[in-house]
Amino acid sequence: MVDKVIIADKLTKRFGDFTAVDGISFDVSQGEIFGFLGANGAGKTTAMRMLSGLSMPTSGKAMVAGYDVYKENEKIKRNIGYMSQKFSLYEDLTVRENIRFYAGIYGKSNAFIKEKTELVLKQLHLTSEADKLVKSLPLGWKQKLAFSVAIFHEPKLVFLDEPTGGVDPVTRREFWNLIYEAAAEGITVFVTTHYMDEAEYCNRVSIMVDGRIDALDTPAQLKKTFAAQSMDEVFLKLARKAVRGE
Amino acid sequence: MTTVSISNIVKRYGSKKTVTTALHGISFDVQQGELFGLIGPDGAGKTSLFRILTTLLLAEEGTATVDGFDVVKEYKEIRKRVGYMPGRFSLYQDLTVKENLDFFATIFNTTIEENYDLIKEIYQQIEPFKDRRAGKLSGGMKQKLALSCALIHRPSVLFLDEPTTGVDAVSRKEFWEMLKRLREQGITILVSTPYMDEASLCDRVALIQSGRIMQIDTPAGIVQQFGKKLLAVKSNNMLELLKILNDQEIVENAYPFGEYHHVVLKNGGEDVLRNELNRKGMLFEMEEAEANIEDCFIRLMNND
Fold it and tell me: Which position among A218, B96, B186, B241 has the lowest Cβ density within 10 Å, counted as fewest Cβ atoms?
């Protein structure tokens, strides 16, 4: 049996009389790259906040990394990684200090940190930059480092919120290589993006419209279902149906 | 007629010890009525260049004119004539929609009524919320208000710094349709974006990376100059396929491209590649592909 890292069942969040997330049900398997798409305001961020233990659902059920989002949200936080374009690293700490800081927060042992730091630096070709301030690195390197830091504590699941925004096309692809490697090691990747070509790199993709998941399948099957040439077309067909704004 | 003329602009930041060069001697012209795109990733120098042209920042070297006026000596004239929408939302959050628009109109000695026809199409979409504070608007509505404010004095040149960053595919399409209609009114538009697919919507584009212009042309012209045979290949094992492709002597570069991998061949040899993949027991589909701006950008970056 394949382990389910996320199981969501009619998960709902209301703010007053506004239903931000409207009874979404889906699951994500271990090692899967799961694309979480939707227009601005469709409810992606609210859904991600519930799944990462930061926001209590109004109703419905969800298990993340084996823990209940209502009762065990602190355990969820320990067992996931998170990275976004906006929040990632401390600019005025060095590369090594950033790694040390995040690994320490997750309670990793000194021996583990020491050994794995060298490994990560080597993988990213950053060994010679290890003692430089993060702010001196090009954006693309920062994003790759931020991803490695987010999975340094070997979580079951990592949430990536628009990780490649504004990054050049070569670095964007290098970033996806890192995602593939992480998935191959068994880390489940839950990723949002506005680049529709990146939707193609996911094993399965869900598309949220007005708080609901209106489509969920492999990219190939979605294109078939919606008689579309590309994921861009699938997205436009679905998102144009949205009635609510942001 | 040339509306924007840029000649050897150099911009450096930092003190003597730690100098960062943001722009390495940039030159190009933009013609009146053009929709001109500055395409490149974060950190390429797009914002620095826009700030120099809108007279908010001084260049270390080089000269530039906007609407015939020098960006240093005649900055006051330029400020009357340009509209600028910065990347970060910079309207007054605690003024209402209408108050913001009134404010900008007044600063430029005009009124909303006087230029209403220009902003009508955009402003009408947010007019039902005209008494709402700007800080309480959604991202898409903020964007429309910012564009209205940048247009209210009927500028001859409009600078839009990454108006579509972080915006979903549907809103991006709508925004570009608005730009096309503005251009029909004769306004020269310079727009920057990190999204390569938006290049094809411009009359001409400059591809910019690390403070250098890699190429300037019409989108079609850039694609024509790609100059190499490009293949699109897919299989049931994309990761393995990519490895094999990049190991081939005849392959200049291979990289993921949506559903396919794109393969740039050094000098042809499609059949050789086909045979090699067959020999490895790969199940694959291969067809010739047309390069787009992103392929060109990747190739220019790699040749650097």
Answer: B186
